């Protein structure tokens, strides 16, 4: 016949160890999972640079006479699982103007084709529907189907480096509306 003294005595230290192990294990699973869900739900959080500016060129690499130079915009993309270096996300034309730099988007505001710079004409040309733009990005042909000139982008020159706040704009609109 057994009595109460034979019953197993609860081990308080063992219980605390198991509870702590469970809590740590839960954190190991939940924290990465939460980070992955945030990145998946908000793709912009994967692309954001420092205040949206990206270093795109050396100032010394741009022609001093103001001739536009096409530059591919690349950035690092990171999500919860991978990190990719130098992923192309677009292109801009950079021009030296005085002591500063002007950045023009390379996408035609009409329907989104890439524009070419034609040095012989000192103008930009869109091969899709033949819009033409002056070197400063303005429409230089009244028959141009583009509803507005080429879009300018914010630029900063920092210690000889050109930084651009790259963004895209809605096409087919008379006004410049950022694409969210
Ligand atoms: S997309 Fe450039 S003119 Fe139509």
List keywords for this structure.
180 residues, Rieske Iron-sulfur Protein, six-stranded antiparallel beta sheet, binds FE2/S2 (inorganic) cluster
Descriptive overview:
By secondary structure, this protein is α+β, with helices and mostly antiparallel strands. The chain contains two helices and nine strands. The chain has helices spanning 12-41, 44-47, and strands at 53-58, 69-78, 83-97, 100-105, 116-118, 123-125, 132-134, 152-158, 161-165. The protein has a six-stranded antiparallel sheet with strand order 1-9-8-4-3-2, with no helix packed on it. The protein has a three-stranded antiparallel sheet with strand order 5-6-7, with no helix packed on it. Mean pLDDT is 83; it is low at 31-49.
Task: Give the structure's gist in a few sentences.
The protein is of the alpha+beta class and 180 residues long.
CATH class category of the largest domain? Mainly Beta
Mean pLDDT, all residues: 83
Task: Tell me the distance between the termini.
Answer: 77 Å
Order of helices and strands: HHEEEEEEEEE
Taking pLDDT < 50 over at least 5 consecutive residues as the criterion, the unreliable ranges are: 31-49
Structural class: alpha+beta
Q: How many β strands by DSSP? A: 9
Backbone CA Rg: 28 Å
Describe the biggest sheet?
6 strands, antiparallel
Please work out how many helical segments DSSP would assign: 2
Which ions and ligands are bound to the chains? FE2/S2 (inorganic) cluster
CATH topology of the largest domain: Rieske Iron-sulfur Protein
Q: CATH homologous superfamily of the largest domain - what is it?
A: Rieske [2Fe-2S] iron-sulphur domain
Helix content: 10-25%
Q: Tell me which CATH architecture of the largest domain applies here.
A: 3-layer Sandwich
